[in-house]
Amino acid sequence: MKTMIATCALSALLAGSFLAGTLLATAPAAAQTPVAGDAAAHAGHAAPAAPKPAKVTLVYQHELPQVPGKSVKGVLVEYGPGAANASHVHAPSALIYATVLDGAVLNQINGGPVRTFRKGENFTELPGDFHNISANASQTEPATLLAVFVVDTNDKILTTPADAPR
To answer: Residue 42: inside a domain, yes or no?
Structure first.
């Protein structure tokens, strides 16, 4: 599994290298978790439970040679059936190239259309993007994606929950 992750990460990084180079040269120094609605409470119904979040694991990190202050970090995101992450933003310097390794993932960036990405498909998040929806598209099958971050080396917090775009 680690070999597959490393291979996918390297492929993702190489495929996105032209974009990364452009952004690095110019870069400065889930489903959205449902909110328990008052209507449900007033109607005498229990609010739906929030989806279980995905398991997020930093699987590798490496400083980029000849690009002082920049690193590549690989993050494995494992969604159980029905799992979703809260809306979030990433480190301000982060360029992310994500590839679905297994299953299907729902994704919405900056309030745009909700899209479904399946095994082998990928998407990019640019610095400053707001990630509205990050969720497993299936209620019965797991899904996994590898997110490859190109980020300032000293950025330690890669993801921060957020209620609204900044």
So the answer is: no
Count the neighbouring beta carbons within 10 Å of the beta carbon of residue 57: 11
Based on the structure, what is the number of domains in the chain? 1
The answer to whether residues 6 and 76 touch, using CB atoms and an 8 Å cutoff, is no
Residue 66, classified by CB atoms within 10 Å of its CB into exposed (0-12), middle (13-18) or buried (19+), is exposed
Answer yes or no: is 166 within a domain. no
- Structural domain of 128: 2-29+50-161
β-pair type (95-102, 143-152): antiparallel
Given a cut of 60, is residue 104 above it in pLDDT? Answer: yes
pLDDT, position 51: 73
Name residue, tokens 């979040």.
53
pLDDT band at residue 162 under the 50/70/90 scheme:
confident
